[in-house]
Amino acid sequence: MSNKPYQYCLKKLALIAIISLLIPACSDSSSNQANNQIDYTKTYPASNGGTLIDAMTGEPSGLIAMIAGESAASAIAGNIFNSLLKYDKNLDLTGELAQSWEISNNQKTITFHLKPNLKWADNQALTTDDVLFTWQKVTDEKTRTPYGSDFKLVIKAETPDANTFRVTYAAPYAPALDTWAGLHILPKHLLKDQDINTTAFARHPVGSHYYKLDSWKNGQHLKLTRNVNATQGQAKINNLLSRIIPDKAAQFLELSADNIDSMGLNPIQYARIFPARPDLNKNIALYKELGNSYTYLGFNLKRKPFDDIRVRQAINYAINKQEIIDGVLLGLGEPVASPYKPGTRWSNPALKPYPYDPAKAKTLLKEAGYEDHDGDGIVDKDGKPLNFEILTNQNKEREMTGVLIQRRLKDVGIKANIRVLEWASFLGRFIKPKEFDVVVLGWSLSLDPDQYSIWHSSQQAAGQFNFISYNNPRVDKLLEAGRLELDPEKRMKIYHEFSKILLEDSPIVFLSAGYGLSAIHKRVRGISNPAPPAGIGHNTYEWNIPSAYARTEMSEH
Amino acid sequence: MLKYLIKRFFWMIPLLFGISLISFFIMHLAPGDITTSEASFNPKASEESRQKLRELYSLDKPVIVQYGLWVKRMATLDFGTSFASHQRPVFWQTKDKDGNITLGMIQEALPITLLINVLSLILIIGVALPLGVISALKQNQLADRAITLFVFIGFAIPGFWLALMLMYWTGVQHAWLPISGLESMGHENMTWLSRTIDTLKHLVLPVFISGLTGLAGISLFVRNGMLEVLHQDYITTARSKGLKENRVIYGHALRNALLPLITIFGLSIPGLIGGSVIAESIFAIPGMGKLFYDAVLMRDFPVIMGILTIGAVLTLIGNLLADVAYAWADPRVRRGVMQ
Fold it and tell me: What pTM value is reported for the model?
């Protein structure tokens, strides 16, 4: 019989199968990474050079941010392009391409003065012609951008000279400065004969910021290299390499194997895995910063009983926000009392979130007529029990938040069911036609305080953002006034007042604002810790990698 | 035979129409479009702008009109451009007036997926054939039981979990293999040989993981086919003629047992272009599975339709090839076709 060798082969295969099942069991064996022996605690003067490798979960579709729109695109394009203005580390507006700007007495005209001798990466002069060209493109009907409407409010844009750019609005528009901080200026000399929707420029961009695109391997990585013609100063790190790794667990393995330097973490990785892995902590530093969004519970104010402020406030008191922060975010978040980043100018320091007070919630429900008359544990009014549906989209954190809320509501006699939906049907079948009771969702903690499109009573049509149908004439007035007032001090008072009414009125329950969490290899120096309000990314050009710590396997060419 | 082929070929055209029509309508049954992704739920993007985008992409027109537009484009083999990826061509590269070449999305993803799938198919055949034969010959003995157990473990084990464990073991604990991606840093500067080795090293785990699940089906298939054939009269005849056991098994039994495999391979041709979303996401491989998944999430209709159409064409061709191969391999079928 000639099948002996097969038999042998088979035994080997079976052995391999068993071994592969046992791999997790032998995970304590020592790592072979040579870098583990490097001492990353030494101090070195800041030096130039090196490559920073980070990981992104998604690939940018293009690098013209106004058309691409997704966060991966803005993250990369933000290193390549400049705007007229930017937010500094305390989230105040300051000039980027603009040296200074003036606002006319009637507050309708803004004049920007460019810094002298600005240059594109191809060494051409950057002038206000480019700024005007960019404005024309973003407002062009043919441009496929969702961000045009703010810029269409400009009724006249002109360039009296190569360093002056003047825009005039029909009425004073306070968020204008914020919009100019978000618009990447594009080079006219390269784009004037191109169709901006299809141009190859989106994949071969030429900008004016610290870095320029060196190479882009679809689905694999984008490599940026220092722009020697940068006029905003020179970045210290030579190359930024962004690898596209869709899976967070795979990113984490790459980080552990020292193949990438930086990644965003989720609360479990930050609060559970890292503390348990001293070998990782030797090489990797953790950072946390204020996040950019908050989670809320929003009421459909067109539906009973949510039109009753006592019911809304009762639910607000019934929910334990700290429990949500501890349970869902593992403590890595903050309660908020207004839709603004805590600690920044627009956030009203006098406001405190509703404390967890089930007794008060019950009293308020009673005042509103809700009591448990039939003894089934659920409060009722006119024979109708108080029950509703909490709707959210497929997002683990929001689902868990919903469960915690459900339980606390049960304590005060409110029955809530949870329904989780895929985003498109969530939006199309429930939010747009306003077919919901209560939603758990998130809004961004916007840098500009204007939130007209979310809270103003005129913004309730299908597809607009005031889908909870909030309608408060006092808030409407403040939001209108806030849009007309360009003086930061006066604006601040307006929005502090707005936040105060919003909190009292309780059209939504502010739940939590999670921290942005990241892990960065200790070879990278110059990172602000603790992070300022703008986050650790505010000074990436000052980050540096001492040559003693630079990767050796990277050939820099 | 030729007449049969031509007839089959022309039948494919109405079939393709039917498939594309059904796919197009099912795709539009799902709520939402490119303007309603979660990322676009942003107060800075106004509803008017979104409506404008819908008009630019003809998404405001009735579905049947959109289908007509799509068929019109397809008639000239134009797969269109992606909504989501800055108007990248869906299928093949285009050149603009300045000579910049933009590569097509399928053009880039397909070779990677094909390579992985062909390699894993080779792995499956190379391992499953001998395993199946041994199982059949050692029916109900220890070897048979062990093989069946092994292939079922391979089939049942969650691919993503095993992938992560193997990545940790071979990539973090021991730097034997790269963890994810297709190329190491500095790949461009390597020599031809080290580039190939580098790519192959990156492919080891993905090929192993995607082959593991296929192993069970094929090896059990071979085993059962062999068992059936081994009990046929002609095998008894061959043995009684005094043929060597090797010749009986490999010359007579195996050849006949492999016939049904032709169907399986014919049907797996369209599978060759479909990548696994989970494996591709974990290993950071920009293949067809990830491309299709992202396109569905973004409601990127041209890309979805492009992949579905190519998949449909390949399925039909695969069926045809399987039938032809049958006729070639089995005289009984050949005669049936000829009549």
Answer: 0.83
